[in-house]
Amino acid sequence: MEIKTDWSLKEIREIHDSPLLDLVFKAAQVHRNFNDPLKVQVSSLVSIKTGGCSEDCGYCPQSVHYNTEVKVHSILPLEEVNEMADRAKSGGASRMCLGAAWREVRDNKDFDKVLAMVKSINEKGMEVCCTLGMLTEEQAKKLSEAGLYAYNHNLDSSKEFYSDIITTRTYEDRLNTLKNARKAGITLCSGGIIGMGESVDDRIKMLKTLSSMNPHPESVPINALVPVKGTPLEKMKLVSIWEMVRMIATTRILMPKSAVRLSAGRINMSKEGQALCFLAGANSIFAGDKLLTTPNPEFNEDMELFEILGLKPMEAFQKESREVAGKNEVSVEN
Ligand code: SAM
Ligand code: DTB
Ligand code: SF4
Questions:
Q1: Predicted confidence band at 91 (pLDDT cuts at 50, 70, 90)?
Q2: 222 vs 33, 71, 247, 262, CA distance in Å?
Q3: In which region does residue 175 sit, left (phi positive, over 0), alpha (psi from -120 to 50) or beta (all else)?
Q4: Helix (H), strand (E) at residue 195
């Protein structure tokens, strides 16, 4: 089976809306054809700079525009981040994801600190991923030279729904940063959130934009909104597990080789619901009792689930995605 980058909206919608059991079966088949279904990438997430962000993303507790209970802190010291990476590695994590509540990277001492963190975690043999907001080509190059493996920058939703959720930047800005990261030879981690009040068509359009990238993003995180008190989306109803399974399965079918990450929102999902997501092709999670600011299942609970399902944590650099990608350009159609 070939990897397609020209899925149409109609094709995607048909896959997404097919009978749930057919959809899961098809996705499981695709997953098994392209990946080891028992291997799940375990990433550890650390918020290296929390809160006080100037963007107004409606879902985010770290925005200055909303009154939330997030404890703001400036950038963490290198030693602390190194210790966290050591602990995560001994717990079986192969990837460390560093998140900062920044609108964009600025060329200052804080960026130099991030570069030092990337270098040092990379030297421990872990894949390092950063999510720092918008990047210029030059900054992406510096991160790449420091050993950055992946850059997380989510599209979050469709271009049309985007402006209902965020007004302080555009969809184009988002796509530009992804291009800059790709040009610098960094693998891409890009996905979205469901449960923000978007329509199914918005989800389909987002999946079209992601699956039209050539090459596909190497990781595609699918987040279920974690409604946080004080944000405009605090009253949103929790997304149903069936919608999550549909989204995961469709993502897997469209982007067979990408790591599909069952991201935020696992705290509200049953073990059985998560198991169905793994069957439908999810093969990556964030482990640890906290995401950036909101709770995540306890590490031991996740390991118990892995034991029950026979899943094993994936080793670092399993997929030489940079080689798979083969080129340092990404073409994006919208
Ligand atoms: N500031 C950077 C940015 O926006 O790219 C990096 C950090 S930001 C918190 C990373 C991603 O977390 C967002 O793009 C969004 O997809 C996700 N996210 C943030 N708040 C969330 C929430 N309450 N529920 C689910 N996902 C959320
Ligand atoms: C992603 O797609 N999900 C992660 C990661 N990328 C950086 C973040 C989820 C954040 C959930 C809300 C919070 O904990 O603040
Ligand atoms: Fe800032 Fe990122 Fe939160 Fe948006 S999602 S407010 S850019 S930290």
A1: confident
A2: 21, 25, 8, 6
A3: alpha
A4: none
- Ligand of minimum distance to the alpha carbon of 293: 2
Considering only CA atoms, which residue is closest to atom 2 of ligand 3? 101
Q: Where are the domains of the chain?
A: 9-316
Distance CA 187, CA 137 (A): 14
What's the pLDDT tens digit per position in 145-184?
A: 999 999 999 999 999 999 999 999 999 999 999 999 999 9
Largest CA distance in the chain: 53
In Å, how far from its chain's centre is CA 138? Answer: 23
Give the Å distance between the CA of 163 and the centre of ligand 3: 14
- pLDDT value of position 172: 96
pTM beyond 0.85: the answer is: yes
Tell me the pLDDT band of 333, cut-offs 50, 70 and 90: low
Q: Which is nearest to 188 in space by CA: 220, 155, 161, 157?
A: 220
For residues 307 and 191, the answer to whether their CB atoms sit within 8 Å is no
The residue among 141, 139, 42 whose CA lies nearest residue 100 is 139
Taking the centre of ligand 3 as the mean of its atom positions, its distance from the CA of residue 293, in whole angstroms, is 12
Expressed in angstroms and rounded, the spacing between residue 74 Cα and the centre of ligand 1 is 18
Contacts of 164 (CB under 8 A, 6+ apart): 58, 197
The answer to whether the peptide bond before residue 217 is cis (omega within 30 degrees of 0) is no
| All residues at 6 or more sequence positions from 32 whose CB lies less than 8 Å from its CB, including other chains | none
For the domain made up of 9-316, the CATH class stated in words is: alpha beta
Is residue 325 predicted with pLDDT exceeding 60? no
So which residues are the catalytic ones? 53, 57, 60, 97, 129, 189, 261
CA distance 261 to 41: 8
Residue identified by tokens 């210790």 is 83
